[in-house]
Amino acid sequence: MKINLTKLFQKQEQVTTVFQIDNNWLRLIQVTTLKREKKVSMIKAMDIVSLSDEEITQKVSELVAELKINSRYLILSIPRHLTTTRNLDLPSANPLEIKDMIELQIGKQTPYASDEVIKDYQILGSGADGYSKVLLVIVHRDIVGRYLKILESAGLKAQRVSFGSEGLLNWRNLAYREKLAAEKVHILIEVDYDASDFEVVLNDKMVFGRSISLGFSQLPGQLEQWQKKFVEEVNHSIYAYQNEIMGKEIDKIIISQPRLVGDSLDKAVLEKEFGLPVEIIDQFKDIPFTEEGVSSYNSLIRTDLSFAGLLGLGLPAVEHKIDLVPQEHQIGKAVKEKGKDLYIMGILLVFILVAFSGVFLGRMYNKERYLGQLKQRLGEIQNKTKELNSMIRGIETIKDRVYTRGMSLNLLYEVHRSVLPEMYLNSVSFDGKQELTLRGESNEMSEVFNFVNKLEESAYFQNVKSKYATKRKEGDKEMTDFEISCPLADKYKITDKYKL
Between these two residues, 420 and 182, which has the higher pLDDT value? Predict the structure, then answer.
């Protein structure tokens, strides 16, 4: 009996699911790939504005049961209005140096610490002066964590967390087939229910973007007023681009339209107001659908919801540039993939051994010898499994160390921020666990007490005290020597487990 291994392991059908969850809507599209042909096979939208996370989880669980969603092909989209983006000019063309510079930029670009956010970036290009233009995308860890928890509670695990605006750029390549000159700047706008995504594109890369807090839900039934407000907001965004980035002039504006929004936009009026060519494109133009996909969209109650970004994440066979998966999920994914490789290797190895055993069992070797070989091979697999367990223990150790990374620098920063110009610190001593000791001198005794008060205001310290403050003569000047004890606040005290 011959076994066709190619046919046995061949994927007959792959269904990719793209979720987007925000404060108002849960949206989903599914793209079915069959014999390398991709089609949209399902579109869903649910109003979740008044639902708790537990109720949203129940909705997702119902979708999992109805659509048989496979986590292996699951993408979570983070919309533009939930992110912060920055366009940076960094003095390096070395990708490794740029990565280090990005870490330093987080504190400057956001009010959050680096471990409070998830970030990724795309290098847009480097100039002859050695500077690189970089698009930095930042999202608060709580936002991504909330949506991942909802999916995981429903039995799903997202393989990617992608930037919705990147999907919008991919959608343009699907729906707008007219060739765009690489050196020409154009604007890409996605009009949605409660917000709009404004992107400036050059050389097929997003060089500037912002969220416009104007969606089609505002000013219902007042199309003329809505369009007037839309023109104002887009003009403000164009001005912001021109003010921040001195570069090429804008060549045209491309607008993605949901079904209802398209009826309200007047191309002639927009071209007159903007003084630029305007293309208004149906979000489903040239998008391949199955009959079930068309039926699912026609059954939606609302027709002013945009799915352009989701289509751009699910349909194109291109790698997403921005990945907003939390670091701990990336580590877990890497470990899981290594374990899966070992598991598959073990299965194939056992399959091969059994196959050969069946062919040559009665001809060349006795049954006991083959059984011994099989045990030997399985022992090798167990050794590799032990190596994997060792890797996991190492990762846990790294996670423990992450807790204490940067604590000394944070304490030094707090002291530097509080020290007065007239003071001089002779030593800064940290016991590695619970207390920082400062020694120095000052012109005035009152400056020492002011310094103590400023340190007490810091979130890092509590019960700051001056151990001593003694005056002495230095020439004609009177100086005050001091020692200040700065115990760490309870939440920053380092246990023996995390001792530096």
Answer: 420
Give the CA count within 13 Å in the CB-facing half-sphere of 452: 18
Most confident of 125-134, 161-170, 387-396: 161-170
Residue closest to 233 by CA, chosen among 191, 193, 263, 278: 191
Close Cβ partners of 114 (under 8 Å, ≥ 6 residues apart): 103, 106, 107, 406
Strand ranges in 98-245 using DSSP code E only, listed in sequence order: 117-126, 132-140, 160-163, 185-191, 196-202, 205-212
The CA distance from 293 to 44, in Å, is 10
b/e burial code for range 54-87 (CB count within 10 A of at least 16 → b):
eebbebbeebbeebebeeebbbbbbbbbbbbbbb
DSSP 40: E
Pairing of strands 14-21, 74-78: parallel
Among residues 74, 64, 73, the alpha carbon closest in space to that of 14 is found at 73
| Rounded mean pLDDT, 208-216 | 89
Other residues' Cβ atoms within 10 Å of the Cβ of residue 393 = 10
Mind listing the pLDDT tens digit for each residue in 152-182? 999 999 999 999 999 999 999 888 877 777 7
Place of tokens 């020597």: 481
Task: Check pLDDT > 80 for residue 399.
Answer: no
CA distance 112 to 487: 24
- How does pLDDT run across 57-110, given as a tens digit for each residue? 999 999 999 999 999 999 999 999 999 998 888 999 998 999 888 888 887 877
Q: CA–CA separation, 420 vs 416, rounded Å?
A: 9
Q: What is the pLDDT of residue 405?
A: 56
Distance of alpha carbon 333 from alpha carbon 161, whole angstroms = 13
Structure tokens at 11: 């994927």
Q: Residue with structure tokens 């619970």?
A: 434
Identify whether the C-beta of residue 267 lies closer than 8 Å to the C-beta of residue 280.
Answer: yes
- From residue 139, alpha-carbon distances to 31, 78, 81, 167, 420 in Å are 26, 9, 10, 17, 35
Which stretches within 245-326 are classed as H helix?
259-262, 267-274, 291-298, 308-314
Q: Encoding tokens for residue 204?
A: 């097929």
In the numeric block, the tokens 């027709």 are attached to: 303
